[in-house]
Design a protein that fits this description.
- By secondary structure, the chain is mainly alpha-helical.
- It has 29 helices and no strands.
- The radius of gyration is 29 Å and the shape is globular.
- The chain starts with a helix and ends with a helix.
Length: 654
């Protein structure tokens, strides 16, 4: 009942606030007024879809990481109840996403929604409208989540369903207003953090209240885990919201425009929710063993949930409100395609010092460095040692990711093929080597304490489950890892996939993530510091690295010899005056791919030599300790054997 009330409140808020700018967006686009059903029905339907989304994501989050599963891996009763709730919410999400398609089509063409319900008209509009396609894809993924929730019984598959539910948010993020116009790279990246944070925060609270209402097991533990997630989401929401807002307006317009006033209302709601939620959950957890503690959590949590859903309504209305006209400068073609202008060629100085921070991978690099250092610090506080060299190579790996995505290399990569290829090599062939050499899994397993017998599993158990999961076992198979690592080059650049991906910012994010992940998967069993499902013998490690080298060389040579410009239509469309010979630039990229294939071999061989040397040293020290303990019994026995053999030879010679 609370969820229904909160969703109705959010829908009313969204519809009411939409009236503040009713008709303005249509006038701005030169479209006729489509009528009240389209104008106010669209935000209401969107609230329904997003309410289903946040409840689904929150319930699956709880089933996977807050409500402890059984030691066997099967879901406990509370986890199964959360999954069933997620299934019903996913069904609402799916229906809402389907309803969004005709409303988007009607809104984009300035027609009453009834005029586009004709099948032929609707299909034609969907084919032309990216946002309608995005909502249709969201509906498909949400339907898959519904099916998963009907059959899921284990913790591992619950995690998969949770990942799918997060994936369903992505199409709408990638095709919304943030994905068009100037600075769309920053706007889209900040919206990615914003919506994921909101879904986890709001949905998590609903799941926490449902668990408390059921008087579920381990409620104090569940509340503490959610509080940590809520804090992280609140910080992400605050920072990404500020960035996203000021991409569209100047600080002066914050108090002089409808858009700015809605931003202020949303900000106040988030601040109140963050402070209020933190203190009320901390107080409730302290008294949770008492019935009054649970009752207080339910009462205050219900108020918090209502305010949260009202904030969702404000956010939907904000998305329907055109930004102020103060930033209405017409972006040039380069800005429209990649999000920012590039007025000068990529010199060595600009590649290193002309930075444009990547909110996704730049933040990821900084967060990975900080978490690793915190882990090392915790070990040292316990009196444990951790090799300094591993910390150094981890920071080098994080720095490589940061430079590849946020320096001038990251800035010019979307527009210049040779720079893109340099970025590709850094992310797939150098950064993963450093990251794997640092042994992050080993560090995490030492930092996280075991849950203990008969205790709910925690982060250490989750990590071990991932390391030994069937998915990890398949990915770390040498043949699979090799095919993913070297086959990606050919599949991406010679299949036409790269040409399609160039026009989409989300595709750039996906490519960079793919480069980094397949590189890590390849070098994980090769360097072999962290525990892995498959252990390769020393010569197998060297052989796998040598096996990849010819494929890299052939790929680079193929690029250098090709007379067809990969992504030519996109690069010509940028019309950069300083980039006139696209084929020469592609040949330069091929040369980089060819030459850089030697660098990982040198680094990996050096790492393996160091490992073998240390292994020999450990073996020698172990033998010395054993000799000191038993008076060198093995050597004495060996000498006695030689003496007996010599005596027998003497007897025979007589």
């Amino acid at each position: 009942m609370l969820i229904v009330t909160a969703a109705v409140l959010a829908a009313l808020v969204a519809a009411a606030l939409t009236t503040l700018s009713a008709g303005a967006s249509y006038e701005l686009l030169g479209l006729p007024d489509p009528g009240p059903i389209t104008q106010y029905g669209l935000p209401v339907v969107r609230v329904i879809a997003e309410s289903g989304a946040v409840v689904c994501i929150g319930a699956l989050l709880f089933a996977a990481f807050a409500i402890p599963a059984k030691r066997s891996g099967a879901l406990a009763a509370d986890g199964y109840a959360a999954v069933r709730t997620a299934g019903w919410a996913a069904a609402v999400w799916c229906v809402g996403a389907v309803l969004m398609v005709p409303f988007i089509a009607a809104d984009a063409t300035g027609r009453p929604v009834g005029d586009v319900l004709n099948t032929e008209v609707l299909f034609g509009l969907v084919d032309a409208l990216e946002q309608a396609q995005a909502w249709l894809l969201t509906a498909v993924i949400a339907f898959v989540v519904v099916l998963c929730c009907r059959i899921v019984l284990s913790w591992g598959w619950t995690v998969v369903a949770f990942g799918l539910s997060l994936l369903a948010l992505f199409p709408v993020i990638a095709t919304g207003h943030s994905a068009s116009g100037g600075a769309h790279d920053i706007a889209t990246n900040s919206l990615l953090f914003h919506l994921f944070g909101a879904a986890l925060w709001v949905g998590g609270l609903v799941a926490l209240l449902a668990h408390a209402a059921r008087r579920g097991a381990h409620l104090p533990l569940v509340a503490r885990r959610y509080s940590l997630i809520a804090l992280i989401c609140w910080v992400a929401l605050a920072l990404s919201g500020v960035i996203n807002a000021f991409v569209r307006m100047t600080p002066e317009q914050l108090f002089t425009s409808t858009y700015g006033l809605l931003v202020i209302v949303k900000t106040v709601c988030l601040v109140v929710l963050g402070v209020f939620g933190y203190f009320q959950r901390r107080s409730a957890v302290q008294r949770i063993e008492e019935s009054a503690g649970v009752a207080a959590l339910l009462r205050l949590g219900a108020v918090e949930a209502l305010v949260m859903f009202a904030t969702v309504g404000v956010a939907v209305a904000l998305g329907r409100t055109p930004p102020p006209d103060g930033l209405a400068t017409v972006p040039n073609r380069t800005e429209l395609l990649i999000g920012y202008p590039l007025d000068s060629p990529p010199t060595a100085f600009r590649l290193m010092f002309d930075w444009r921070f990547d909110l996704v991978f730049g933040t990821l690099a900084l967060a990975m460095a900080a978490l690793y250092l915190l882990g090392v610090r915790r070990l040292r506080q316990r009196g444990d040692r951790w090799p300094v060299g591993r910390t150094v190579v981890w920071l080098l790996g994080c720095a490589t990711v940061l430079v590849a995505t946020s320096s001038g290399i990251g800035k010019y990569a979307p527009a210049v093929f040779s720079v893109h290829m340099g970025q590709h090599m850094l992310l797939s062939m150098l950064a993963p080597v450093f990251l794997v050499m640092a042994g992050p899994t080993s560090l995490a397993l030492r930092v996280f304490k075991p849950a203990g017998k008969e205790q709910p599993p925690g982060p250490r158990e989750w990590l071990l489950a991932f390391v030994h999961s069937p998915i990890t076992r398949v990915l770390t198979n040498p043949i699979v890892a090799l095919v993913l690592f070297v086959g990606s080059f050919y599949a991406l650049y010679f299949s036409g996939l790269f040409d399609v991906a160039l026009t989409q910012h989300w595709a750039h994010l996906a490519m960079n993530a793919h480069f980094l992940l397949v590189g890590y998967v390849f070098y994980w069993p090769v360097i072999g510091i962290d525990p892995a499902p498959r252990k390769l013998p020393p010569m197998g490690k060297v052989g796998l690295v040598f096996a990849s080298m010819p494929f890299h060389a052939f790929f680079g040579i193929a690029l250098m010899m090709s007379t067809n410009v990969i992504g030519g239509d996109f690069y010509r469309g940028l019309d950069l005056p300083w980039l006139t010979d696209l084929l020469a630039d592609q040949r330069l990229g091929g040369g980089l791919a060819w030459a850089s294939g030697e660098v990982p071999l040198v680094v990996v061989m050096l790492a393996l030599l160091i490992q073998w040397s240390r292994a020999d040293g450990r073996t020698a020290r172990r033998i010395d300790r054993k000799a000191d303990a038993d008076g060198d019994a093995d050597l004495v026995a060996y000498n006695e054997m030689l003496k007996r053999l010599a005596d027998k030879d003497d007897q025979r010679s007589r």
